[in-house]
Amino acid sequence: MAGERDLDGERDAILAALTPVVDGIAATFGPVCEVVLHDYRRPERSVVAVAGSVTGRQVGGAMSEIGMRVLARGDDAGDELNYLTRTGNGTLLKSSTMVLRDSSGTVFGALCVNLDVSAVDRAHALLGALAGVAGPSADPPTTTFGNDIDAVVDAIVDAHPLRRHKSWAELDRTQRLELFRSLDARGVFAVRRAVEQVAARLGISRASAYSYLSQARAATDTTSDPDGADA
User: Fold this and answer.
1) 113: which strand partners?
2) Taking the mean position of all CA atoms in its chain, how far away is CA 180?
3) 62-82 pLDDT, tens per residue?
4) What is the mean pLDDT of residues 2-24?
5) pTM score, two decimals?
6) Residues 199, 205: contact at Cβ < 8 Å?
7) Cβ–Cβ under 8 Å, residues 51 and 79
């Protein structure tokens, strides 16, 4: 359709206009800053521009689980600003994810800023201890950043709370439905071949995985619309 082609051209133009902004923001904040520009039309290689190396992202790399969360929310997604997270190696990040929309309001990408605030956190803890006011603080969640989408999906699955005390083979039907519902809500299944990958991780057939996903979505739809077809 011509309209869709026009929107794709508009999206490409927005990404092209933001590419020099990526370098400008990173240069302003220096080596503790990383800026990543994402095109969510290609989840497996969404990174179209990057400056800085806080998380080791590269052009052509995959989105993180944060991007998957944005995809799961679709056009209802909003900016997430000044949140704390940790990388797999323990680096504390202060991050912002700003969604990109075309003129139709469709979310198609994001501009992400990651600041390494580990040194600031250590200094804050030291000053608090010296002043006698240091106290425990909530530890930020760990986020998987990687250039390989398969590694990101595997990390999300393996970190799920249901894995904490059981092997995947020990999960009963109810728990597997809960797992698929949770992964779907986090945007995992927006990634191509993710259903097959999760099936392999759990040691079940692809057909079983699609069945669990279908049932999980049906249950979610029923919960969100209690009147069902009569609404």
Assistant:
1) 35, 96
2) 17
3) 888 888 888 888 899 999 999
4) 91
5) 0.73
6) yes
7) no
